[in-house]
Amino acid sequence: MVTRLNMVFNLFVFLLFSGLGHCQALRRHTFVVQNTSYTRLCSTKNILTVNGQFPGPTLYVTKGETIIVDVYNRANYNITIHWHGVKQPRNPWTDGPEFVTQCPIQPGRKFSQKIIFSTEEGTLWWHAHSDFSRATVHGAIIVYPKKGTSYPFPKPHAEIPVIFGEWWKEDIAEVYNEFLSSGGDPATSDAHLINGQPGDLYPCSKRDTFKITVDYGKTYLLRLVNAVVEDILFFSIANHSITVVGTDGSYTKPLKRDYISISPGQTMDVLLEANQRLDHYYMAARVYSSAAGVAFDNTTTTAIIQYKGNYAPSPTPAVPSLPWFNNTNASVNFTASLRSLASKEYPVDVPVTMTHKLIFTVSVNTFPCEDASCNGSNGNRLSASMNNISYRSPTIDILEAYYNNISGVYETNFPDYPPLVYDFTAEYLPLELETPQNGTEVRVLDYNSTVEIVLQGTNLVAGTDHPMHIHGYSFYVVGWGFGNFDKDKDPSNYNLVDPPLQNTVIVPKNGWTTIRFKADNPGVWFMHCHLERHLSWGMDMAFIVKNGEGSDAQMLPPPPDMPPC
């Protein structure tokens, strides 16, 4: 009898979780992760794809909708899929980061992931969250306004996803393994991509260059996604300005610029007015890299804007002017200009009274290497940390351990402040500061607590920019600056009126950024740098947000097909 009751209860939980108990069935999508042969830069190799597509399929949803994605792993590698920027209210189970909210989907297995959209509207994206697999396993998510509502700008003539990517001639799994074994930086990519194509400036690539055909006088919405593995990018279109109207699934005040800066993990909605003479024009992207002495892919990827009409195009499309690769001011001047719409229809809700004021340092570090035989500085192994703790991935996921009270998987001692206080951005720092602690530490938050985090960059090993991402939340970017954060002076300059609402933000080189959010989404939520080498080195941590009172403030139960460890 007890077994029968358990079966009935489990069936009820499954129906409740999957949505099959509702009158209207949820829309389902099928993602088949598989090896597919692709040719780029004059050579052919197998890459991991979803449904054989590179980039992967675009998901089209409506604000507030819930969908099911059935993920089948028919590849030879473990895989997880993350729905970047989707808050997944009360549902961390299908958020995706490996060994944080789930164990990986093993070859030959399937995981049905329930994706709950809530307040997001605009462009988001999905990607693999295991090793470097997201180099080829990624795609856009387009969240349309609810029926009966519209964009806060004139409806564009057409919408085009523009996904920035990266290509290695070598197998990406080999790149990852060599990176881990060497103790140094990963091999730089051989090309950057726009919608899977390198563009005219690379060998064997001109014929397949991505092209957008436009009508003079019309406006187009470009939905930009930076799926690049390692690099922040500058992007521009020759002879055209673009107007930013949204970022990370949230609308912004219109911001007209000749170029943008976009980091891995970020998305932007930009309007392009086709208002130039009939011709062909390059759109182009290349790296912004502020770390001295760190190699990067210095090539430029291009696509073409071509006007309709009866005319003879110029022999070579016009080329946009992009900031120089190490122009930090160009990057921060753009990102610092973003503002939330803050209108009646799209209000802001910036926390003012704070429960927690936290300061997290984000640093590149080193660990000693036997016989100084690694490729990091001084023969050491490169690593990274937050508040001097280099994250160590467990062997079962933190969420399962938390939900089932399994001890020994993680500790709850992540510090609120840097355990070592020094001149974080000094030009020269003692070598002994470079070695962090190692551990799997989380910070526990009460439900509905308000949180301010100052993300403080340091100049250890190599000062550089860090695009920091939090799963399960969007946050208000209320302030930033260069140098060390001053708790007595800097808060007076915070923008609490119309700060941008983002899920990924760039911490400037040797500077700081302050974010605020309300911890109203119970579960386990990962925070990390979105440069994959930094994530792999340990610039990560997790929040556990406790359940609140009432059923609508508590985590949903796990789905019945959670991948086993």
Fold and architecture overview:
The protein is mostly beta strands and 565 residues long. The chain contains 5 helices and 32 strands. A 6-stranded mixed sheet has the order 10-9-12-17-14-15, with no helix packed on it. The longest helix is centred in the first third of the chain and has 17 residues, at 2-18. The radius of gyration is 23 Å and the shape is globular. The protein starts with a helix and ends in a 20-residue tail after the last strand. Mean pLDDT is 94; it is low at 1-23.
Précis, in short:
By secondary structure, the protein is mostly beta strands. It is built from five helices and 32 strands.
Helix count, DSSP H or I runs of 4 or more residues: 5
Radius of gyration: 23 Å
- Which stretches are low in confidence, meaning pLDDT under 50 for 5 or more residues running? 1-23
Helix content: under 10%
Biggest beta-sheet profile = 6 strands, mixed
Strand content: 35-45%
The spatial strand order of the largest sheet comes to: 10-9-12-17-14-15
Structural class: mainly beta
Q: How far is it from the N-terminal to the C-terminal residue, by CA?
A: 31 Å
Give average pLDDT, whole number.
94
Quick one: overall form?
A: globular
According to DSSP, the number of beta strands is 32
Provide the descriptors you would attach to this structure in a database record.
565 residues, mainly beta, six-stranded mixed beta sheet, 5 helices, disordered N terminus
Q: What secondary-structure arrangement, pairings included, does this model have?
A:
Blueprint: H1 2-18, E1 27-40, E2 43-50, E3 59-62, E4 66-73, E5 81-84, E6 110-116, E7 122-128, E8 138-144, E9 158-167, H2 172-182, E10 191-194, E11 211-214, E12 219-226, E13 232-237, E14 242-247, E15 250-257, E16 259-262, E17 267-273, E18 280-288, E19 301-307, H3 328-335, E20 356-367, E21 381-386, E22 389-391, H4 398-403, E23 437-439, E24 442-445, E25 449-457, E26 466-470, E27 475-482, E28 501-502, E29 504-507, E30 511-519, E31 523-529, H5 532-537, E32 540-545
